[in-house]
Amino acid sequence: MNLELRSPFESDYPAKLEATVRDGPVRCISFNKRGTMLAGGCSDGYCIVWDFQSMSIIRKMRCHVNSVTSVSWSRNGRCILSSGEDHKCVYWDITKGTQKWIRFDGPVLMAEMHPRNNSMFVASIYQDSPVIVEIGDTIRRFPLPTNAGSSPDANNSSSEETTNSTLYIHKTVVCRYDKRGNRILTGTNKGYLNVIDPNTRRILDNPKLSHLSIRNISVSRNGKVVAVNISDKTIRLYGLDDERIDINPELQFAETVNKDNWNQCCFSQNGDYLIGGSGKLAAHEIFIWDRRTTRLVQVLQGPNETCIDLAQHPIQPIIISVDVEGTMYTWTTRHKEDWVCWDPAFKEIDDNIVYEEREDEFDFASEEEAEYSQSNQVKQDEDEDEDEEIDVVTVDKPARSDSSDMEDDELIYLVDSEVESFISTKTLETQQPESSARLNHTANSANNVVIPSSTNNNSSMGRNSKVKGKNKARIGNEYEDTNGWKKKSYHN
């Protein structure tokens, strides 16, 4: 959608269900930085990439054996990091089709790419400490502490004293980078929110928010506010500084009627609204609050399937949600078609009017007059086109994007893979008989399409066969035409 044609009076949050997509058992989703592509991880181990404008699949690859737990985009939009229950993370280059596997000692709960470094990510491991991973010629791992006062490498100790200490009481269940990647936010099963310096791997601040486990952490687009989803059925907002979490004042958001849990939370594209996906059984509900007034402004209700994940578009007021069946739902605003943006002479009417035709509207014009008027119109259009210079190279930056987010090698759009079509073509070529080689060469040079042979020497059509019905037996003579096709003429 062209951002300049959008009405400035439209609401900044969705209000209706626009479309439904069913392309697999999707469990988690994530937008790239520009919102042009959407990545999803499935319960069967596949990772799918959609073109968001058409919602067509442009990449699909088997990355894991078990279910995928999270997907994350790199800064340049060329690679996807996926984590799974099969004890590994997969770094997938969608332009080349290559994969790098990083194995761990337990299932990976979630993993997120560094917002500035395309070869670094942080991962949360089940029953283990979180770890920073650098991807290069060799994989380097740096464990992170789980509670204040512990050393970064204390988790690698195998002594019984370390095993029985309080270090292993706190288990990290979620981890997240801030906007610049200068800090790492980790949540434990005891309700502690740790702020870690990735360079020194030391905990700068660790306030206790609750006695229950932290489920999700979301950082606003400006990086100054953090939303924490806790198992006590409440979403809390805190201010985020360079080294500490400002827990005063604390804003709480909860469902006051049913008191259900929240499966996911995030901010709107401009950070003015907080979005929460309800974990209510047999109900697909998304709550939207005004972050400043804590007022509930919208409740989106879908089919009777629980919402397990959702993602906010980084630029437009669009939300993508996923239910337990793997179906994705697109929620958009109620926008009105304004045809004046396309044609200033367009006039919208509320009721039918009687049209009064002009006196010379249907007068017959000779061919000479028609050609003369047409040529004058073409010359006038050419003169107007010569005066106007159209720039088709420069990419307009969205109004809400940061200048520091621009990259030279950033991948914004992606087309279908040429490698997959090449492999499938070679496979068809090997399955064809030699008699159709000349035809295949002609077809490949024309349209790059391989047409399989219509007959086979070992097939039933190439042998004399008995036919049930009126024609009990038919004898055929086999011959080859000028194009190299084998044909057979039959006679009774």
Automatic annotation (TrEMBL):
Spans of biased composition, class Polar residues? 427-463
Asked if DNA-binding is a keyword of the record, the answer is no
Region of interest: Disordered: 144-163, 362-408, 427-492
Q: List the SMART domains hit by this protein, alphabetically.
A: WD40
Q: Which species is the source of this protein?
A: Rhizophagus clarus
What SUPFAM superfamilies would the database entry show?
WD40 repeat-like (SSF50978)
Instruction: Report the GO terms under cellular component.
Output: Set1C/COMPASS complex
Task: Describe the location of the Anaphase-promoting complex subunit 4-like WD40 domain by residue ranges.
Answer: 20-75
Q: Which domain of life is it from?
A: Eukaryota
The residues bearing each WD repeat, given as ranges, are 19-60, 61-102
Q: What is this protein called?
A: Set1C complex subunit Swd1
Q: Where in the cell is it found?
A: Nucleus
Comp. bias intervals (Acidic residues): 362-371, 381-391
